[in-house]
Amino acid sequence: MSHQFQQYHLFSLPRDLLDTLVPRNDLNQVPEPSTPPRTDTPPPPPQPTAGSRACNICLGAIFVDVDDQRAHFRSDWHRYNVKIRLNGGEPVAEAQFAQLVDGLEDSISGSASSSDSDSDDSDAVAALVHKTRKLARPSSPESSTPKLPQTPLVWFHSPPSTQVGIYKAVFSSSTPPTEYLAELKHMQIGGEYGRTWALFMTAGGHFAGAIVRVKRPDGDEDDGGLTKKGKPRKPKPEIEVLKHKTFHRYTTRRKQGGSQGLNDNAKSKAVSAGAMLRRYGEQALRDDIRNLLQDWADDIHDCERIWIRASVSNRRIFLDYEDAVIEKGDERLRTFPFPTRRPTQAELSRCLQELTRVKVSHLTEEALRAQDEALLASLPKPKPQPAPAPQPEAAKQKDKPAVPQLSPEEEQLRDKWTRLLDMIKRGRLDTLKTFWDREGAALGGVNTPVPDWTDEKGGTLLQVAAHSGQEEITKWLLEDLRADPTLDVPSSTVAAEDDSGVESDGDVPRLPRGKGGRRTAYELARTKAVRDVFRRCAAAHPDWWDWLGTEHGARVPSVLSSEMEEGREEKKKARRKGLKDKLKEREKEREAASPPPPPPVEEPKPRKTKEEPGNGPRKLGGASGTTESVAGLTPEMRAKIERERRARAAEARMKALQGGGRA
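^ thats the sequence. predicted structure below, dont judge the formating
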């Protein structure tokens, strides 16, 4: 029978076409006829008899009772087949499994039921699976077949020149590609109630949904016949729409796209009337769809496939809510494997026809072969991976610096030191006090050396505070915690430090460095205010430390008592007063030496003419004398006259008050 220029329904393929179909491989080639079986091939597995139990994965595994079946499920053979099946491979018979075990270096123990051997068996089975997968890989990249682009269609061939294409999405997700033909033949069976699909689309506030029967029950066949009027009956349609519903809500701004909810999440929440309407439309659309799914719950439960076209955000309308009709991980869920348009009833019908109508082409073997060669030629060739140049072991050791592996306790200790030093350098005294009351003992006390990995300019907390110029923290460390100011600064800090940028102390001399360049926290301070903290503490508590010692002391050159500070302030005030007096004398001398300025010359006031009327509006009957006198003056002169007028008025009021008091 010729199949030229015919269209077929997916669930009603002709029997003569279905019997001649063979799958095509990735290169769209008809598979070569299988070679005759070898003599050492094991016999076909026995078929299970009525009432017996069998394994759906292992070939030829039949059990007498439940205990035998449970023992099989714990065996290495069954667990190996399960893992191979999950990886997309084919299970092996028991004899083939025995050969694989013999070729494995590590022996696999039997199906022991004790818990002690479970881990060993799992490791052995995993090793066998890894070895099988490694042997299945191609020997070299050059000999491997180039990776072909994935297509949504799977093709079958019917000799001599008919090709049939079907969307992969219509098959079960658990079916391997080698079993597509068997499932296609099983699709021709309608069963007692037929086959139904559910289709839903939503986008831009539009929704369309339908429950359709794609395959009639087996007993409901179209037997033709005549009507009462003697006319031939119309054939029953292959597809029957059982339920359908469409509606629309205002959720998207015109000509801008995107829902209002996504816009609110990306930007601030709009408060316009249109935005409020769109939010209401989104909520109403969500409620309408979920109510519809609840009404169709029984029909959806019986559907073989559920097709949903929705964006990521709109997909939660169907799945992600409490008491959802469709579960999120449902095996029946599918997306349309082709572009779709606005959700309407007509678009649902078009998509349903596209899914159930079989794609047919008629190419000869020569045309198929030429098509395959052109496809292979168009594929990009894999780029050869350059082999890395061998490096000597010494260079490898130098390129990879040793990164110390820290324990959780060491990482926690480093975090505490980092936080402590950050508080000191930022001058956060209140936070530092609270932290030290809690963690000070664990860190080793106030005089504990700072770890080397911090790279700080100072070996103790007092030296770090002095170098950072934190006056309050230095005072707290010296007086409250009694930090030792006589400890030496580390040699690395001494070598890196110089006296550039150090604020001068005025009349306080700086001591030369001790033997070996010895320096203390006082000499590490770069500001005068911090050094005065050391001097005040030395004056207030002279018995605490050897403040003035140069060899083993704190190397503070002199103390600073309250009387000395008061005397220093008085000297500063006297110096300021002397400077002010000198400035006044210089101003007087300069005024006496300079000639007096000439008296100001008053410019004659311009007389107004009839052609040049005065500025501002003129009242009927003329203006007052005051307004007439300032009309032609500049704003500065008018302001001066106004001030003088107000002063004269104030003097007159004062005289009147004085005269009234005398009376």
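Residues 28-43, 105-121, 139-143, 619-624 have pLDDT under 50 and may be disordered.
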